[in-house]
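Pilot study result, target chain (50 residues):
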Amino acid sequence: VISYSDRPSGSPLALIGSHGWVEIAINCGNAQQMLNFHIGDPIQIVLEQR
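Predicted structure:
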C-alpha cells in the first residue's frame, strides 16, 4: 500500500516508509501486540503478484 489510509481500520499492512524501511503495521492498531513481533525477531516477507 502507499499509505496507512489505503487499508481499513484494523487491517494489517506493509509499506516502505519515508526512511526506506519496510513498515509492518495494523491500521489504527498495534502490530506488535496483534502479530506478537519483537525487536530482532526474524521475519519473512513474501511478495505475490496481483
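One observation from the pilot: Strands lie at 12-16, 22-26. A full batch analysis is planned for the follow-on phase.
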